[in-house]
What we know:
Distance between the termini: 53 Å
Strand order of the largest sheet: 6-5-7-8-12-13-4-14
Shape: globular
Number of domains: 1
Structural class: alpha/beta
Number of strands: 15
Amino acid sequence: MNVTTDLSGVIASGMCIGCGACEMADSTVRVSLNPKKLIFEPETPGSKAAADVCPAVAVDYEGLQNYLFPGAEIGAYGVVRSVHLSQSTNSERNIAASSGGLIKEVLRNLLTVGDIDGVIALDHVAGVDFAARLVRTPDDVDTLPGSIYHNLKQTPALQILRDTPGRFALVAIPCQLEGMYSWIRAQAPELREKIVLTVGLLCGWQYSHHSINAMGEYLGYDPSTITDISYRGGGPVGKLTVTTTAGAVYTASRRVDFGYQVAFDRHFNTNRCHVCINHSNFLADLVVGDAWLPSTVFTKTGVSLVVCRTEYAERVLRRLVDNGSCVSIEVGEDEIRESQTDRVIFGEFAYAYAAFLQNLGLHTPRLIGPNHGFGTLKNERQVASFHRELVRKQSLMAARRYRYLKWRKGTRELRGYIMRYVRWFLVRILRVKSLSGQRKEIAKDRFSGFH
C-alpha cells in the first residue's frame, strides 16, 4: 500500500470535506473555499502529519471504534447497544427540527443536570456562513439552527475543544468525527477525556455551494444577498427557506419543488460523499436522524431514529423519557436499514465507486468500515455512467450553467426522477414490503404519545 505523504491527492480530487483535522495537525495548512469548486479544501498540500489524520486519505474505522468503544462488539451497523424511535414532546421544538427534535432535548438535559459544561455545535454567523460555537445554557440550545446541508469548515469546533477547559457534548456529521478522532488519537489524546457525549447525525450527504447558487437561479434570489438559510423545519420533510438583505423570503418544498430536486441532486454533493461508507456515523455515541419508515408516515412533525452506541447514551435517552421530555419505543436494527436503505447503510454504491476510481488511477480514500461485504455492490456499468455524468455536471457547475442542468433533469433524467417518487409511494405509502411478507411494520398502537 502506498504511503500518502501530503494532501496533494485530496486537493486534486476535490475530496476534502472541511473537517479541519489537517489544520490542527499541521500549522502550515489553511483550509479555505475554492472559488471554482465551491467547497472548502487546503490551499497547500501540507505534510505527512496532515495526511495521517485526513478522512479523505484514509479512516481506520476498526481502530477508532475500538478506541472509542473498548470491548464492544462491532457488527454490520457498527457498535449498537439499542435502536429507538423517539420524538420530543415539545411540539414547537419538534416541528422546528422536522425529524423529532431529539437532539435539542438531549443537549438541554445534559446542561440542566450538569453532566457537561457546554455544547459545541454549529451556529449561524452570517449569510451562508455557519461555525461552531460554545453553548452554555439550556435555553441557548434552542437558538441553534437545524441541519445544515452545504459544505462548511469545521476547524472552529476542534479549536474550541482544544482551548476551552471543561466537559463537552459535540454535535457532528460522520466525516467531522472521523477527522476529529483521528487527530485526537494521533496528536492530542488528552482531549478524549473532555468529550462526554458525541451526538452524531445520520448524514444525507453534504453539498457544494453550487447547490445554493443553482437554487438562487431557479427561485430568483442573488446568493450574495442571503442573510439566512434554513433547510428544514415546519414538518417531517420541511422546506428550504432563504432570506435576503432586502427582507424577501424564498421557499421551496423539499419533496415536490422541481428546482430543489435539481439543485440537491447527488451530483451537487462534495466528491468525498460519493465514496462515503459511514452515513450512519460509526464513531458517534448517540446517532440521530430522520426515521423514513412506513410506520412513521402518519406523524405530523417527524420522528427521530436513534442509535445508542454506549450505555451512557442509553441512560441519557431513558432520562428524557422519565422526565417527560420525549416519547420513545425500542425497535430492532432492521429499522436502521429500512429507514436509510441498503445503498446508504451498506455502502453499496460507495464501495463500488471507490473501486472504480482506484482502477482509473485517481486519488481514492481508503475506507473499509464494519458494513463492508454486507450489501450488494452496484455494477460497474452503473458506476461508470454515474462518473461520466458527474464529470459532465461538475464542468457545467464550474461554468455556472445551472439552467442547463435543470433542463437536463426535465428531459433525459426525467424517467429516473419520476421512478424515485414511484418507489417512495410503493414502499412508504402502499407498504409493498409488508404486503409481500418481506418485513413487518411497527404496529401503530406502539406510537401512543407520538404526534
